[in-house]
Amino acid sequence: MNILRKVDEIEIFFYEEDATNDPQNLRSAFEEMLEIINLPRVRLKFCEVTSFRLESLALIFSFFKTLKQKGITSELLVPERLEHFLKQFHTEKIPDLTTKLEHTG
Amino acid sequence: MELDSLISDFVSEALELLQKAETRILELEEDYNIEKLHSIFRAFHTIKGNSGMFGFHVIQELSHKSEEILDAVRSGHLPYSRELADLLLKSIDRLKQILADIYNEKNYLISDLIEEITNFAQPSHTQTSKEVSVREEAPNLEILYSEQIKLALEKKLNLYYYLFELLEDSNLTLDELENKLKLVENEVLSRGLDYYSIPLIYEKKISLPYYFLILTQENIDAFETKLGLKAKQKITLHLHTQQKTEEKTNNITTNQTDFLRVKIDLLDDLINLVGETIITRNQLLQRAPLWNDPEGSSILSRMSQLITQLHTKIMNTRLQELSTVYQRISRIVRDTSKSLGKQVELKLEGGEVELDKTMIDTILDALVHLIRNSIDHGIETPEERKKLGKSQEGLISIRASLQTGTVRIQIEDDGRGLDYEKIKLSAIKRGLLTESRAQEISNEELTEFIFLPGVSTKENITETSGRGVGMDAVRNGLKKIGGTIHLTSVTGQGLKITATIPQTVSVISCLLILVNGRRFAIFQKYIAELLQFEEKNYSVINGHGMYQLRENLIPIIHLGKLLYGEDIQSKQQNSYIVIIRLDTYYFGLLFDEMLGTEEIVIKPLGEHFKGIKLFSGATIMGDGEAVLILDVFGIADYTGIHTIEVKTSKEIISKTKERGKGYVLFESSSQYFATLSSSIVSIERISTQSIYHISNIEVIEYKNDIVPIQRLEEIYNIEKQPDQKEKFVLICKIEERYLGILIDKVLDVIESLQLVPSSQHWQGEGILGHALYDQKPTILVDIEAILTKVNHTKFKWLGKVIEETMSLEVK
Q1: In angstroms, what separates the C-alpha of A64 from chain B's closest C-alpha?
Q2: What is the distance in angstroms between the Cα of A91 and the nearest Cα belonging to chain B?
Q3: What are phi and psi of B754, to 5 degrees?
Q4: ipTM here
Q5: In B, which residues are within 8 Å of A62 by CB distance?
Q6: What are the backbone angles phi and psi of residue B653, rounded to the nearest 5°?
Q7: Is residue B669 a contact partner of residue B744, using CB atoms and an 8 Å limit?
Q8: Mean pLDDT of all residues belonging to chain B
Q9: Read out DSSP for B151-211?
Q10: How much is the pTM?
């Protein structure tokens, strides 16, 4: 996972290994991030991600929900091949979460 | 109406409202329904209004606060959560406490609870909490799915919300769920990730909650069964039949005109009066034939029928539905499982079964004990259950049914069942079981130890259980109202408890008997059989009367001796025996004359009789005489006939078969004995003069060795008869040492014996069972067990004494 801090937003680059490794590491990374984020917008971009552990996906949604609690808006940038998978969760219905289809990887 | 009376009405109504509110709160946790929330709100609102009227400001303030927080939930400003439910239950508990002491109402402090409720209602509560549970935002569904609820209303269908957890370790994948949903595709209104149920990242448990909305005609459970998946959470958003259900559940406000509050004391007075009327009627019925007035007899007969009907109706006024007990049980399951960190699902059936108020009170105490035990001892922790391949949530089900005047209640759990090894150790520790007996005792017999005081399988005493005082109290409580209790357990799979109790107690069918010229009554329900006494079937073993009934030896209690200290032998001819069946064992009561059966009205015994175990009550007969009712449990306790299941012949035979073939039959002091021939090394004929004494121990010489001998009379408490010149010794080898049993004569050596079941009362240590030889009761002796014990206790010092004696001789 790479984090790019811009002037008014933070961009997180999320890789295959983040999606498939021990979810505990991902949780710690998100928790640390929540401590330091002070910008109004977060964009999470899937890079070369083809499969997911459900725990990792659960952590991403939990992360977004916690961001919302802090008043931070979030955006999920999804590669085409994951579109169908995420559609099953109806992510478009999630309040304040923008899901964008992008050719990210 | 006096003020006190008005206050008393207010208290009982408020308690009733609080009880209903408590039930609704518990129901909401299972099935969220906005109408139930309104119902809780209304309960607090009514209490607030009424308490204000009487000037009970503490109650008014607390109910107002509770009402306020519920209003915040109703308006969607606050989510309904388990935490909120806890707070409301706390408020109910405090209100109940104050109501119970209404005249001291002003002295109760509620500031802590008011503060807690106020803090909880702060908007920041949900914003900052890092421990928001999955359930907490559920009420938002009412707002979130308002369009769908409208649709359900229009289409007159039910709308349900189901929530599943999709994670690797939950054994449910998205594909599986989607496949299942295809089967009910037409009924699915919408589905997807439930954003509101997603936990925050700080929470320990992360889950991927997947929901779907179902628009269907079916009920919520039927739909779940049809789907073939167990939802983590299910909520009724709209129920088409809701109106009807609510009419039934909210009778607090709508059906007031159908009910009248009557004091229990008044009902008790009515019952007493109708009891007296029955006695007077019986007196009239006895005398009527003497008057020779057919017309009068006909009127009397009609009046008799009316009195019976009146009695039934009045008894019915005391009947209460078991659902009142179930309400309390739901709360106990919730609180106990929470405090012990366990997950428990409670299934209740038969809440409509009605019982007398006395029975309700007793059964509530018993159920509370049993349920707490079940959660504490039986149901495993979620982690343990997962390891065992069980669902993380344990199941406790209570089923009640009415069977011809008897209510049967079954309590079943899917926990670990009874730990027989722990029961064994506890019983040995308490001195209730010897180690040698423990080796051969069956699981069914061990189950009975659970009901003895002080026996517990719990290593640590907790707030919930572990002191070993529960189960004996449960059985005694049930016994007092004529009930029974039975346990069946499968280790690792769960425990099933069956309790039976009569629906009412006041009028009961009894057998009337005559002992020493006085009448006594015995409850008909405990009677298994009635017999005329026959001398040839009666024998005395170990000083106790035994009666041979078909293939059984039944211990007999001579009522004349027990109640009047009569000589046993004097009146046995022309007597009768009533065979009493209690739980799992039988015994007989010997009496003089049988008078027949009669419906009697039970009257409690006065304070002076409290210490006497032999009687459970009294009744007034038609002729005005007071008759005592025999307490068969008390008699069994008093005479020491224990409540341990009778061994069957089969069990004894299989046990003896394991240990060798053939029996040696012998006699000592006119008592017949048998033992396994494999236990005996040799049988020696001796002269009584060849018995020596060393330090009060009798010994004989055998193969150049000194062999201590034991008399069976000392062990079995048999009256010793004078020694004949010649006797026999059964020589056995125990722990590399020869030991002998002194007997009068050997009767026979046979291949098989006719074994008979007998009460545990006669199965002391060293008795394998009983048999009939030549139609005479015969004790089947476990010689090895006796001599092993004697060798360790009585003969322990013998070796030393002999050594010392020999060294003296050498000197």
Answers
A1: 9
A2: 7
A3: -85, 100
A4: 0.90
A5: 198-201, 203, 206
A6: -60, -45
A7: yes
A8: 77
A9: HHHHHT-EEEEEEEE--GGGT--HHHHHHHHHHTGGGEEEEEE-GGGPPPTTSS----EEE
A10: 0.46
